[in-house]
Amino acid sequence: MRLPGVFAVLTCVIACGRADGSLDGDEPLALMPADARLTVDLAGSVTQAYTVAALVEGGAPVDVTDQCTLSLDGALGVVSDHVVTVTGRGGETTVRATCATGVATAHLVVDLTGRLVIGATTPADAPDRFAGASVGADPARTPRVEYPLDTAITPVNLPTLEAQWTAAGNDLFHLRLTAAHAAIDVYTSGPEAPLAQPEWPVIAAAAAGGDLTFTVEAMAQAAPGTKHVSAPVRLTVAKDAIDRSAVYYWASSQGAIMSQAFGSTAAPTSVRGQCTSCHALSRTGTRLGYSRCVNNDCAQLFVGFLRFDAGAGGWVDAVDANTSGIRGSYTTFAPVGNPYPTDDQALAMVTTNAGSLALYDPDTGAAVPSNLTEVAAHGPGAPRAALMADWSADGATVVYASTPHPGQWIDLGDGAIAKLRYSHAGGVHSFSEPEFIVRGPLQLPGGAYTNFFFPSLSGDGAVVVFNGARAPWRSNPARAAGQRLFLADADGRWATDLAALNGGAGDADITWPRWAPGASDDYYWVAFSSERDYGHRVTATNTSPSCVGNGVTQCKQIWIGAIRKSTIAANPGADPSAPPMWLPGQSPAANNISPYWTAEPRVD
Fold this sequence. Notes:
CATH class of the largest domain: Mainly Beta
Strand content: 35-45%
């Protein structure tokens, strides 16, 4: 409860107090100022002092500040001696006074401002030039924001972001970033603005839970009286922060599996070369299955397994594919706890060269008996091929691609998404009869999608993301098959095209979807590979020659897409996706495919 006029009487509170100088202990408390709004620079700090008063009925409020402790909800600032200090942050928070007789709260808003002049050739007076210019209307001179993509959604802890735009014949630019609690001005002489440490995390945090708008002004330095202004692009900054994790992907143009820690700005590291592909990681991030063209002969494709040695701080061979013991392609792992209680023992599932699924011990390469090969071949028109399996986080379910063409074990056509139930009792591994949760055709503006593959179960087991195509996978050129991502309920009640993530009806050769590990509040996060343009950094016209081949016309890159949980709950079957974000840190000159997102292995 706040009494009228409490601000006016505060000075008398401190000087006069209550007539008898006593308190009953049950007086309501007020934290003042009740509402405050501050402005802070990116490189600066600002303070706000607070006072706590006990509101005495029929008398003057009594200052009890020294009897209370102040704290903030969230990490907007720090508190010392009843003074809040905010350093280079923006947003809203609740200031809380905890006293012996109760709690009082106040609302604090901090607006973040800043000015950055980047690039050695950018004139120091660029802000003044733009402030004094009038707005022109020549479409040929008007810049267009290329990245981020309009209405994209980013996790708040994406480590860096490079804004990109068209030059449109100009050579001086002003990028304006605005959010509810942020207004940042960036000046540069090039058509991009790399936003990194320390500025970008601060800007993203200030915009978290809302939109960050990108607008570019451009001018020719030879004609500084006129500037041209782009249409705004809106980026939603989620409150979701993705757990410390690792993305493993195959740089096919380099013939190596690369590992990149999410949230790190360090360069990716090579895990294994030797034409190693089709990899999968355990959910603990401690085991890696792969297939390899032995002696560079892809007619001799064999499976191998690596295990992370925490003591040595690196990956070691458990089963080397070069020994040619397991002929197969795709792998997946049972999670810790089902069937084995610790990570000391593991169970792997392999797509064999017979087009079937089978169990193996990834530490020895020994076959593990089960009924898996038999039941995975069941279904309409049996015998069917089974491949590209993914084991759920709870270990109870396996989803996979099932095709009526026996023997398919790498490429496939006419695929459907099926699932098996798994149980382990008395040392026996058992799988149920398959349930088919997605079968074609699914009709879209681009045609009938009849081939479904690469399924991946979300961490909570509620939904499955998968690929769909109009033709057999790995058609040439790759875009011709129309490969894109779909989402389905794990029980097969609905399936939908992820049109926003896919970029509309066009074909961008999107493949290999995998979910981020860990829990999140508002979104599911999925990594995938695509030939879509990354601003002007990666396009068909400037792509690295090493990427062109196997039907690919430009370097495929790893992207991260957001799937709204609220849309799935409120309107099942509607598109819950948004345009994606490029994964920072990867090489734009490499063909990066098959991302596998998992926990980061820990080093002792």
